[in-house]
Amino acid sequence: MIAGNSAIVATGMGVRRGGRWLLRPVAFGMAEGVIGIAGPPGAGKSTLLATFATLRRPQAGVLEILGHDTGNSAGLRAVRGRIGYLPGRFCWAETMTAGEFIGYAAYYKGMRAADVDQALERLGLTESAGTELSLLPPDVRLRAGLAATCVHAPALVLLDEPLNGLGDAAAAETIPVLRSLAPTVVVTAGSAAELTPWCDRVLALEGGRLAELPPHGAGRPVPLPAAPDAAPGRRRPSVRPLAALLPRIVLGRMAAGSGAGV
Ligand SMILES: Nc1ncnc2c1ncn2[C@@H]1O[C@H](COP(=O)(O)OP(=O)(O)OP(=O)(O)O)[C@@H](O)[C@H]1O
């Protein structure tokens, strides 16, 4: 089943903030792979990512994460421990060492000291574990944030503009790390050009609409299927099978086995 394989399934989902639709009601899914969301400042990327992280609720429609409806408390309980979320403009606990920072995150996620050691090793932080975050270069600080985000081995990782502030060389070294964090990784950036070279799939968010960009950024964006506008605050039940709402381009890509479609 398509919906069963998708980490994120939105059905008629709309997101409002500041009195306007940042995302007009739309249907889409995100399966395994690295999915980029590009958009200009203020388009709503951070708000959408926080919605996927279940920190905000959509104002219309249904959002399923890892097979659970986030509109009820049982679904939220089931899914929250399987998400790793690293907000943008993250305020680092600058006087903590990298090891303390990751250990702190691990404690609140119910993980053990061995999991901290494993995360430090996996992110290449063993030698930096005793250094205060404020003294580490930006890419190493980012890796500490990623280790804290992923210490519980989440199935879905959400990263808000993680490459911001990194130079080209550091970004190039970090990209394979980002790609390896979880079966599904969703990452945002200010422009599609920052994402198309290394994401399996890129969506553009602008003016309240999501559009699918063609692979490698060549060609015209394809708008995702809109749902009729819903009244703010009213949840729209999922009554149509998702497959009926999928754009042809995504179905075609799935048939080709890209591993990154809906
Ligand atoms: N605290 C707030 N109260 C009300 N509206 C807000 C608030 N913060 C943001 N907004 C609205 O939400 C919109 C989207 O903000 P968001 O941070 O999600 O966008 P973004 O695409 O991530 O932008 P950026 O790249 O600048 O972070 C903003 O344009 C603004 O209209």
Automatic annotation (TrEMBL):
Keyword Chloroplast listed: no
Residue span of region Disordered: 214-237
Keyword Endoplasmic reticulum among record annotations: no
GO MF, one annotated term: ATP binding
InterPro entries: AAA+_ATPase, ABC_transporter-like_ATP-bd, P-loop_NTPase
Transmembrane spans: none
Stretches assigned to the ABC transporter domain: 8-232
Source organism, top-level taxon: Bacteria
Keywords: ATP-binding, Nucleotide-binding, Transport
A Pfam match: ABC_tran
Protein family per UniProt: Belongs to the ABC transporter superfamily.
Protein name: ABC transporter domain-containing protein
Organism per entry: Actinomadura macrotermitis
Organism placement in taxonomy: Bacteria, Bacillati, Actinomycetota, Actinomycetes, Streptosporangiales
